[in-house]
Amino acid sequence: MKKKLFFILLLFFLLIIYIYVMSIEVIPNSIVLMQGDNLNFATLWGINLHGFDEQKVMQASSEIENSRSNGVGKIDLSLNLFENIPLKDVSVSVVPKTKVIPLGNAIGLKLYTDGVLVVGMSEIDGEKPYANSDIREGDRIISINDKEIGTTDKLIETVNSSNGSELKVKYMRDNSELETSILPIRTSENEYKLGLWVRDAAAGVGTASFYVPSSGKFAALGHGISDADTGELITISNGELVTTNIVLIQKGEKGKPGEIKGSIEGGKKLGEISKNTKFGIVGNISNTGLMELTENEIDVANRNEVKIGKAKIICELEIGKKEYYDVEIQRVYTNNNKDNKSMLIKVTDERLIDKTGGIVQGMSGSPIIQDDKFVGAVTHVLVNDPLQGYGVFADMMLNQMM
Predict the structure, then answer these.
(1) Right CATH number for 99-110+201-399 from 3.40.50.12780, 2.40.10.120, 3.40.50.720, 3.40.50.1820?
(2) Per-residue pLDDT tens for 326-344?
(3) Is 76 considered catalytic here?
(4) Could you count the other beta carbons within 10 Å of the beta carbon of residue 279?
(5) Model-level pTM?
(6) Which residue in 299, 339, 349, 371 is the catalytic one?
């Protein structure tokens, strides 16, 4: 009987530990608040944020309004157990209230990588020169023999000029700089190769979300651009925002996402891209005349203002013709700071359903408007139901501009 009671108590104790561990895990390492938002999330008994002060958050909000420099407005807190046992660090970023012009323009994106991205490997006349180098797909080569490598042409030129000598290669992986050496192989064409397939640029079509007149900055997509071969978010050195021509709209259907296909051949430059983040593309618009900024500035909604109910999205399905379409916000995930699935939306406008079948690729970034406020942007479509998809909160996108 005592042994049975012991095992019951042990199981109960282990269950409590499991519940606490899971409760700690779901609390994100970084939280974004907009000025006026409250920091609310449920914690178990004994777990608290040490150092949190509502007055401190408001002070940070004021500082952000007066200074746009990196780091201003961020508060580092500690998640503690019983006050004195630190569990994890939590960074709170306070985004200032601002006004934006919602866009909805179809745009083209050209991204140039920081270094050259390794996207594949192949044998050279039956040999693998990279075999002992530990270089993998997704790594970025930044220099060879201390010479900066920024393009594929530069890499080819540097490898060929080695005349077969061993090369010292520096590369990046997960924000860490690593170094290795590779002995190039001479081919039958008298060229030297490393057996690595690399890429120095990426391009795509999407939708611009909003423009901030006070700073000249823009945001688009609501998600980052990942490499098609590696699936990793592309680390960029710079990029260009350009005009695009919509050439085809492929309607979405259950199990098969649709797509807005566009061409950026001969596209005119609209601005510069400075960041590729998991919450969208960020940069500056230098040619506002081509953007057709016909909408008025509107307030950005706090996430606690976003509610279940009717809303609208703006998107461009014909060149020079942006339109508002009816959607319904079905769920709001107010405490989600981990990813860009902040709200579940459903297309209800028959005009849009007739044109696209619902949400399609290329529509990512379409601004979501509710109660005459910018609340976020479309990010995903549900593969099994193209009428439904996700949107990201406005504050998550604004935070990328800090």
Answers:
(1) 2.40.10.120
(2) 999 999 998 888 889 999 9
(3) no
(4) 25
(5) 0.76
(6) 349
